[in-house]
Amino acid sequence: MAQAKTQFGYRRHPDQDRLGADIAEHPVVIVGAGPVGLSLAIDLAQRGQKVVLLDDADRIGEGSRAICFSKRSLEFWDRLGVGDRMVDKGVVWSVGKIFHGASQLYQFNLLPEEGHKQPAFINLQQFYAEAYLVDRVAELPAIDLRWCNKVVGLESRNDAIALTMVTPDGPYKVHAGYIIACDGARSSLRRMVGAEFAGQVFEDQFLIADVKMTAEFPTERWFWFDPPFHAGRSALLHKQPDDIWRIDLQLSRDADPSVEKQPENVRPRIARMLGHDQFDFEWISLYKFQCRRMDRFVHGRVIFAGDSAHQVSPFGARGANSGLEDAENLSWKLDRVLRRQSPASLLESYHIERSAAADENIRESTRSTDFMAPSTPQEARLRQAVLSLAKETEFGKHMVNGGRLSVPSTYDSPLSTADCDAWGGGPRPGASMLDAPLALRDGQARFLTDAFISVGTDFTLLGFAPDEEPEAVSAIRIGGEYGYLDPQGLATSRYDAEPGTTYLLRPDGYVAARFKHPTHAQLDAALERAAGFS
Amino acid sequence: MPLSTSSNFAKPDDAFRAVVEAHRGLTDEQSADLDAALVLILANHIGDIEVLREAIALAKRRVLDSVQQQQQQQQQ
User: Please, what are the domains in chain A?
Assistant: First the structure.
């Protein structure tokens, strides 16, 4: 079995000796140093904020847990300075295959076009992702990461929150302007604010095992309905780094978890699947899935992100990836509010945008789980009809649901300015920016996402041979006298651009507004709206 | 385009007959399988989620109406 990969020491902090009127005050305290809390801390620190990051453990957890990280997450991590390391270690993939019985029904490619810096997905054990993020945190003095700090009390004051932590040296308090709860599905902060976590529990049980073996399977996501080695149920096989393979087997509703997760009982199942038993177990977990969310993600000065706010079934890689999307959505808004550049009400747009995304993720993952585990005879009959129609019809293939993989949500947002021009394509307001290959004037290749990072990931005007721009905003120019070159014309076509076309990008890389020939007044109004003044 | 409930077949009897005959000789189980596949094939052919929803609502009223009628008969 896998051991904790990295152990960290608890260190006493001077805050622990400060009492009464001398209690330390911090603008932001993040609770939970998982992928979401670590990424949020890095983003805030890169924007110039001081952050205290607390974790109740002193190590990175066992097991692979999340393994699939999406293109969007990699683009975010690239902005945080850890993208290359994740991609270099990860297993890059874009193709999935769906089998029914012994035969392949169809295959899909999640990124069939060239000209993107990041791949559709990488598979990477969560502990590697966390270890790389912790290394990045260590490079940023603005982040004060405190292990073995368990939050046990939360008390609202006039303009701050009093937090009580327990440490190996006993309890202490700090005051925080904002608390971001990234403390997972069993969030204790959620309990402390008295919030519900309502939703649906699926009765079917799934066995998840990571096995170590050398094998020649391609780096694709393989999903079976009713395979010969696991009759009547579903199975998943997916490659991770270090010759580790993720295997996911649907079990019956009445399977006994304590019996099923014994290695001697798991081994024959997996040997049947692989056709041999030349493998070792890294990690075995058995669980039921839940799809649920908090009613409100923002509770005054306590804001929830990641699994603490919403939980989905894993078929679709919508757990960790949606948590990372929460972090990139929240970070720039909190930064602006702390700098008093935007009203505190800007944070409400985090709730609006990300709770709608959570609904979408829950809807997609619930549909996948229902398709894999039909709950009535008629549901099973309809599923059987789809699987058999998929053998000879295109529409049947598209109805087979073996997991719909995470793509960024398009926000219906108060920060967006509605289109006033006619568009034949391109990302609409509320959608995330699309990458494209560009070149410097000397011919050196750059991606649009690189250009976005190099101008500072603030509000940015993306202009195609623009006439002129407001000076208050950073800008990426494509074409014209000084701009990037668009050698393959892909940026122009992906953004449905003509000379003069201008997109206003938010600091998280989402489109706030777009115009074919904007006036200064239009751009100023769009910027005001996107910054939360509306 | 809303759900069309006007008579679309030149010979409606032929259409009804074709469906009836498709079920001839099948067990209830097989008939249910046939209907499930047929519904999905026709739904895809229509290719309009609003029309499909209207059709489902119209069909579902029969089921609900018959439940109501049974309850009324039991009360009488």
Answer: 14-89+123-198+295-363 (3.50.50.60), 199-290 (3.30.70.2450), 437-530 (3.40.30.120)
User: What pLDDT shows up at residue B66?
Assistant: 81
**Cβ contacts of A399 on chain B, cutoff 8 Å:** 40
- For A394, the closest chain B residue by CA position comes to B44
Which pLDDT belongs to residue A4? 45
A326: pLDDT confidence band, cut at 50, 70 and 90?
Answer: very high
Mean pLDDT of A152-164: 94
Q: Is pTM, for the whole model, over 0.90?
A: yes
Are A399 and B36 inside 8 Å of each other by CB? no
Phi-psi group of A532: left, alpha or beta (phi > 0 → left; psi -120 to 50 → alpha; rest → beta): left
Among A151-160, A165-174, A334-343, B60-69, the minimum mean pLDDT is found in: B60-69
ipTM over 0.85: yes
- Whether residue B65 lies within 8 A of chain A, CB to CB, comes out as no
Which residues lie across from A236 on neighbouring strands? A223, A248
B36 touches chain A (CB under 8 A): yes
Are B32 and A381 an interchain contact pair (Cβ–Cβ within 8 Å)? Answer: yes
In chain A, the residue whose alpha carbon lies closest to the alpha carbon of B32 is A381
Tell if the CB–CB gap between B40 and A384 is shorter than 8 Å.
no
Residue A338 and residue A180 in contact, taking contact as beta carbons nearer than 8 Å: no
- Which whole number is the average pLDDT over A338-351? 97
Side-chain half-sphere of A376: how many Cα atoms within 13 Å? 3
Partner A contacted by B44 (CB < 8 A): yes
d(C-alpha A452, C-alpha A510), whole Å:
11
pLDDT at A1 over 50: no
Question: In angstroms, rounded to a whole number, what is the distance separating the alpha carbons of residues A245 and A530?
Answer: 43
Find which of A371, A395, A398, A400 to mutate to test the B interface (most B CBs within 10 Å of its CB).
A395
Position A95 pLDDT exceeds 60:
yes
Q: Which of A389, A394, A397, A401 to mutate to test the interface with B (most CBs of B within 10 A)?
A: A389
Nearest CA in chain A to B29: A381
What DSSP character marks residue A408?
A: P
Contact A378 B37 (CB under 8 A): no
Residue A381 distance to chain B (closest CA, Å): 6
Contacts of B10 (CB under 8 A, 6+ apart): none
Q: Is the dihedral of CA A473, A478, A483, A485 positive or negative?
A: positive
Inform me whether the C-beta atom of residue B42 falls under 8 Å from chain A C-beta atoms.
no
Q: What is the CA radius of gyration of chain A?
A: 24
Distance set, CA A431 to CA A151, A354, A426, A505, A510 (Å):
36, 13, 9, 10, 6
What pLDDT, on a 0 to 100 scale, did the predictor assign at position A289? 85
pLDDT at A5: 60
